[in-house]
Amino acid sequence: MQAKSLMFVAVGVLGLVAPVAGQITRSTTGAFRADLAGAIGLFRADLGPLNPYLPRSFLTGRREIDWDDLPATLATPNLLSGTHYNAVSPRGVVLSTPGTGLLVSAAIGDGTGVAVNFGDVNPAYLTGLMPYSGERMMAAQGSVRTTIDFVIPGTTLPALSRGFGAVFADVDEFGPTRVQYFDASGFMLLDLPVPATRGEATYSFVGASFASPVVASVRILAGTVPLNATSSSVFGLPTVDVVAIDDLIFGEPVPTPSGAVLVAIAASILGRRRTRRV
Q1: Which domain holds residue 77?
Q2: Which of 9, 11, 44, 215 is packed most tightly, with the most Cβ within 10 A?
Q3: Is the dihedral of CA 193, 226, 235, 130 positive or negative?
Q4: pLDDT tens-digit readout, 100-127
Q5: Is residue 2 included in any domain, yes or no?
Q6: Would 3 be classed as within a structural domain?
Q7: How far is Cα 272 from Cα 179, in angstroms, rounded to an integer?
């Protein structure tokens, strides 16, 4: 299949939500991993350098999740804890779904015998869903919706991010798969459809960044139906689109205005304690 690629940069987006000042959107799709490299590279540059995964906010830069650091015990058929990438491996995000849980695909090196690419859920996914980086992908179980809330890494304090982007596996239909951005008040800042490429094992990326940290949470709608034993878009059914999520790239979670006050108070108390010990 010939590669198809679409990339655009937009300041402001037409639709039901008002554009936020300084907003930049980057998007691309294609049949090959290389088709995404340009847009992802630009998006990373928009957010800044990659920060170490430590339980603190660096105030600038970005963090990423590619799922490949997870042990076999947290891969399918086991469920991933929504707090793993905050409490265990601090990235400053808490994931949730209205479905029955979050699944991460198995890897060949797991030694468990579980099929890769969610082939344990449906054998058609072995060739229909391909990871963008490494071997693992993520998908909600029992729902197409995944919510990502930003927090100060290693804490439960709400945080804000300058932007968020995600790689998707096998988006066949333009429209149903979307990334929606919300501020701290729950107001939708942006509603981005993910570009699509017809065919098996394709890749798509969409991301938006802003001039300042304004994103408190992100909602991902991936496909028209969740992973299941009978549905697969590889059979060419136009109303069925099964989609998985790979790399997440997002701006460093920073304190909200109220959270910044709490952080300052905590730092002050800690400083006084240290002074007393001297």
Answers
A1: 8-277
A2: 215
A3: positive
A4: 999 999 999 999 999 999 999 999 999 9
A5: no
A6: no
A7: 44
What is the tally of structural domains in the chain? 1
So what's the pLDDT on residue 26? 97
Residue 87 has what DSSP assignment? I
What is the distance between the alpha carbons of residues 124 and 122, in angstroms, rounded to a whole number? 5
- Find, among 1, 36, 9, the residue nearest to 167 by Cα: 36
Separation CA 141–CA 82 (nearest Å): 13
Asked, for residue 107, whether it belongs to a domain, the answer is yes
In b/e form, how buried is each residue of 119-153, taking b as 16+ CB within 10 angstroms? bbbbebbbebbbbbeebbbbbbbebbbbbbbbbbb
Q: Two tokens at 123?
A: 């054998």
Compute how many other C-beta atoms are within 10 angstroms of the C-beta atom of residue 56: 14
User: Alpha helix locations (H) across 61-160?
Assistant: 125-128
**What is the gyration radius of the CA atoms in the chain, in angstroms?**
19
Position 27, amino acid = S
pTM: 0.86
Spatial distance between the Cα atoms of 250 and 182, rounded to a whole number of angstroms? 14
Distance of CA 174 to the CA centre of its chain: 18
Assigned domain for 1 exists: no
